[in-house]
Amino acid sequence: MAAQQEFPIVLEGGKLVDGTGNPPVENAAVLIEGERFKTISRKGQAPYPKNAKVIKTEGKTLLPGLWDTHVHYRDWMAELFLAHGVTTILDLGNSSTWILAQRDGVAKGKIRAPRIFACGDPIGEGHGKRGEVKDVGQAHALVKRLLDEGVDAVKVWAHCTAEMLKVVAEEAHAAGRKVIGHLGVITARDAVLNGLDCLAHATGLPMSAVKDSEKAQWMLNQEIKRLQTMIIGEPGITAWGLFAMMEEDTFDQVAEFLVSRKVRIEPDFVYRWQLASRRREEREYEDFITFSDPRLSYIPEVTLSRNMRAWQVYRRLNEQQLQELKEGYEKFQKFLHCFVRAGGEVDIGTDTSEGRMPGKGVHREFEFLVDAGFSPRDIIVWATKGSAEFIGKGDELGTVEAGKIADIIVVNGDPLADITALGKIETVIKSGEIIDTGYHPDYSNPIPRPFEPALHSYPVPKIARISPTMAVEGSKPVTLAIEGEGFVRGSVVQVDGVRVPTTCTGGKEIQAQIPAHLLARVGTYTVMVVNPRPVSVKDPLHEDERSNPKYFMVSFS
């Protein structure tokens, strides 16, 4: 059980938006005793205990603690979530052993972090991953293990087939657990027919929003190819392009089908569409400032590089990709309106992982949804009450109501009028405890996350052979042909530790120009290929972004 305040707390005088969707309560008085809300009233209507700590909130807004329902939790993220009012997260992809230890440690008050609900190993991960399954029997065995371990929901990933999903959903639903899917090899329609409850990133949707079945299959094939090649940078259609191919005259029918099956959509604008934001440059600079804060020096370097690389993608987009981004974004907004009008519910998630901004990403998701034309009040309900109900905890969490667990935040402003006011959080209370929302350079997690290769990462390069292997001193520049594997756009050849001009001609071939000044001296020089970070190393003590060495000799003339 988490630590509780020794005295009751009263939040007095502010505007209460309680997460139920009801009209705001002006001049509210919220009494918290222990870990729960005791009374919800207006100032002066109910007495306070004599020893209560009264926090004046005039001119401010009280909201339920926020949720992020698409997190890939890392051991350094807690302070960023709490500082931005996120008191509960749903983790969609970690080793069940580690994430359940985190969940239980937080619940016992041993780890200062947001409340955690977890899915454990995603079912249908790629080759060599924990959640890899090769047939229905393996999928069935894995979901049984996860449920026995006590997961709160189940996540399927891109390589999960319809047949696998069917047995996974049957087991999960029998245990009272929802199934969330990042789809790859099946369409949203097929996934829903086989028991899926929530479309992560709205995956599988584009192929379900076209009338021609051959076109839908072509789009599905392109998505599979995209998942296989997006890391190594081979050309292909973008996810934006698939959304741009959706046919608007199918939207109402598709939306009604999803709603009839009580399926939720997690748009994840901050992941899929962050480059379409009208605030793109502002948010990029904001990330730079946040990650430069010396109090956050414990954040891994790979996170900083991945964050900056995600923003820099925009500067490399060609005209076709920019058009796909624009058209896909506009069509997805239109579809989401059809879905909500039909009675659909939206999940607020940010796919927080190595390169994303924990906590602040939820605020940005709110901004995207407001830009799309949705009301702040509805978005707040989705991010609080709706999230709690989806995970089966609506009777305990998600709204500010008497008897429920006291998760509440105080915002200096009115997010109903200006959603960016969420950036001015003054007080965060979780389970009745006033939370320290500062950053601390000595923050550490008592159970660090074991090393695992990043999901979206470059391969470790390997050199099989180089040609030529020798030149004479004083030679003109030499073109070095290198054969191997794991080469990507951005791979660079190093000769004697010096980076030289490099051209990647494919995943197994690369060429480099050894300049004349490196051929001026007799010797044996190391040749290595260096890939961009992050690289999917399996042994961090013996592997990094560099390949195995080969040797180039310069002999006497």
What does this structure look like?
It is a single chain. The protein is of the alpha/beta class and 557 residues long. It is built from 15 helices and 25 strands. The chain has two domains: 372 residues, TIM Barrel; 94 residues, Sandwich (Immunoglobulin-like), CATH 2.60.40. The protein is 30% helix and 21% strand. The strands form six sheets. It has a five-stranded mixed beta sheet, with no helix packed on it. β20 and β21 form a beta hairpin.
Helix-strand blueprint:
Layout: E1 9-12, E2 15-16, E3 28-33, E4 36-42, E5 53-56, E6 61-64, E7 66-71, H1 78-83, E8 86-91, H2 96-107, E9 115-118, H3 136-149, E10 154-156, H4 162-174, E11 179-181, H5 188-193, E12 198-200, H6 205-208, H7 213-229, H8 239-244, H9 251-260, E13 264-266, H10 269-272, H11 280-291, H12 301-312, H13 319-341, H14 360-371, H15 376-390, E14 408-411, E15 425-430, E16 433-434, E17 462-467, E18 470-472, E19 478-485, E20 492-495, E21 498-500, E22 502-506, E23 509-514, E24 523-530, E25 550-555
Helix pairs in contact: 3-4, 9-13, 11-12
Relevant terms:
557 residues, alpha/beta, TIM Barrel, Immunoglobulin-like, five-stranded mixed beta sheet, 15 helices, 21% strand
Tell me the name of the CATH homologous superfamily of the largest domain. Answer: Metal-dependent hydrolases
Q: Do you know the CATH topology of the largest domain?
A: TIM Barrel
Shape field? globular
Mean pLDDT: 93
**What would CATH call the architecture of the largest domain?**
Alpha-Beta Barrel
What's the count of strands?
25
Side-by-side strand order of the widest sheet: 2-6-14-15-16
